[in-house]
Amino acid sequence: MAGGGFVESNGRHYEGKVTAFVLITCFVAAMGGLLFGYDLGITGGVTSMEPFLIKFFPVVYQQMLDDSGTNQYCKFDNQLLTLFTSSLYLAALIASFFAATTSRWFGRKPSMFVGGLFFLIGSLLNGFAINVEMLIIGRIFLGFGVGYCNQSVPIYLSEMAPAKIRGALNIGFQMMITIGILGANLINYWTSKHKNGWRISLGIGAAPAVLLCVGTLCLEETPNSLIERGQHVKAKTMLQKIRGTKDVDDEYQDLVDASEAASKVENAWSNIAQRKYRPQLTFCTFIPFFQQLTGINVIMFYAPVLFTILGFGNDASLMSAVITGGVNVVATLVSVFCVDRFGRRILFLEGGVQMLISQIVVGVMIGLKFGLNGEGSFKKGEADLLLVFICLYVAAFAWSWGPLGWLVPSEICSLEVRPAGQAINVAVNMLFTFLIAQVFLTMLCHLKFGLFFFFGAWVLVMTIFIAFLLPETKNVPVEEMSLVWKSHWFWNKYIPDDVVGASAYHSKSAP
User: Fold this and answer.
1) What pLDDT, in 10s, does the model give residues 414-467?
2) Residues near 461 by Cβ (< 8 Å), separated by ≥ 6?
3) For position 165, which CATH number holds?
4) Please, are residues 346 and 410 in contact by the beta-carbon 8 Å criterion?
């Protein structure tokens, strides 16, 4: 990689190498995922802390103590409590559409900086909260941060990275999410032993928010964004810097051509609805939809609460969440090293099969132990076995639908529809994250152990969806993706010949 340029799978060749500048830049940008992951992981532990419940949700605390009359499945079923978790994702949904405009008009950098500011304000509001209203408002600000960062960071990473390692660098975003979740679980385990530990847990998110803001100020804008806003000389200089070579004429010209085509588009939202962008619209909608219906956020949001319900002690439930968080980080590393070598499809499919098997086993174990009335608990060996299968499920998600759910939508959209496509991806993701976060505890109360079979059925559907409809996109330059769709048995009828012809015309055979 570091000397002879990149030969792409469709015969395209760009000069350049993997520079330290690119790696450092992508690392800083991916910190937006660290904050998202921290907010994902922190709420489950906080909502299982007794001082927090006593102060803000005393009704839930009384239900938790009640051993007579309250079904074990229903002890945490409270809409206000779930709104504390889910309000972030509703705010992120709304913010994603504003972020798309910010990203296109002002660049990827300002969008990430604004996201960092929102994270900072939200963390401080939560850390100093004196009532439920202040908690919810803080979560809404955090949601604005999620909307802006999740919209801009994956695009930034895809545009900065060479195609040969685009998958690995883009998954840096998901890697940071998993590190954030693990960090949140560790902090919750430590702060749970202090009376006002929940304030530390919620407020400490301000520290990485400051780092993101400062780091973003030090970043460079992507060549794609500079060209898009008419700064051509600066864009070519930046492309030479990130590729580590002066010979970038071919790649630069392709970026200019793509930008000129994009500039003719008056409205990216109506444009992505055109027939020739049907594959992009489909995957930017259904991948985030299916990602949330894996049921992963049952574990990520509510791991300590879920483990408490299943009979783990308070410390044990928090430690179990730490274990699953650690598995999440390690398994994401598997994806980093495999995604550009073996491709996207194989990870999607293997992960789907492993998740399905794990969910069935977990559902059967809980059903046999708790039945329909929710009475029972796991013995030590049984609890350990249950934790093993939950970890297998988390691992499967972490090397498949977790990182690829952000990577694939960000890399399949050409420049003229990229902000709209990513905004749709984030909006759908946040909408269903909000819905699942809001209704999970109620669903657990009513569906009981059948909830795991519910999510397992969706995993089966989405695995079939990938098997038949997603072509392999590894090593394909972002602006040449039309060639992939044209060669696919289903999508080829949507791609006009003139689009493919233009791509082929600009392609250059490897020497």
Assistant:
1) 777 877 888 888 888 888 888 887 787 788 778 888 888 999 999 999 999 999
2) 290
3) 1.20.1250.20
4) no
Specify which residues 7 forms β-bridges with. 13
- Residue 479 tokens read as 């602006």
Helix, strand, or coil here: 7? strand
pLDDT in tens, 183-233: 988 898 899 888 889 999 999 999 889 988 998 888 888 888 888 888 888
Q: Residue 4: inside a domain, yes or no?
A: no
Among the listed residues 116, 307, 279, the one whose alpha carbon sits nearest the alpha carbon of residue 206: 116
Query: Which secondary-structure segment (H or E) carries 6?
Result: strand 6-7
Exposed, middle or buried, 113 (CB in 10 Å: 0-12/13-18/19+)? buried
Distance of CA 79 to the CA centre of its chain: 25
pLDDT of residue 223: 87
Domain membership of residue 286 (yes or no) is yes
How far is residue 382 CA from its own chain's centroid? 32
Query: For residue 14, is it within any domain?
Result: no
Helix axes 401-412, 132-160, angle to 10 degrees: 60
CA nearest to 297, candidates 88, 52, 156, 96: 88
The 10 Å Cβ neighbour count of residue 202 is: 29
Close Cβ partners of 304 (under 8 Å, ≥ 6 residues apart) = 44, 45, 47, 48, 188, 317, 318, 320, 321
Report yes or no: 413 and 422 within 8 Å, Cβ to Cβ: yes
DSSP class of residue 247? -
Q: Give the CA angle between residues 271, 274, 276 to the nearest 5°.
A: 115
Radius of gyration for the alpha carbons in the chain, expressed in angstroms and rounded: 23
Residue 398, token pair as written in the block = 């972490």
**Domain tally, the chain:** 1
User: 3-state SS of 331-346?
Assistant: HHHHHHHHHHHHCHHH
The position carrying tokens 């495999």 is 338
- The amino acid that residue 402 corresponds to is G
Cα 247–Cα 251–Cα 256 angle in degrees, nearest 5: 125
Burial tier of 292 (Cβ tally within 10 Å: 0-12, 13-18, 19+): buried
